[in-house]
Amino acid sequence: MGITFQLEASTGIVCEQWQGPVTIQEIEAHWKARLAAPSVAGTGRTLADIRGARFQFRKEDLWRLITAVLEPGLKERSLRMAILVDAQVQFSMARQFQTFFGELGECALFTEEPAAREWLQRPPGPGKAAQPTSRS
Question: pTM for this one?
Answer without folding.
Answer: 0.84
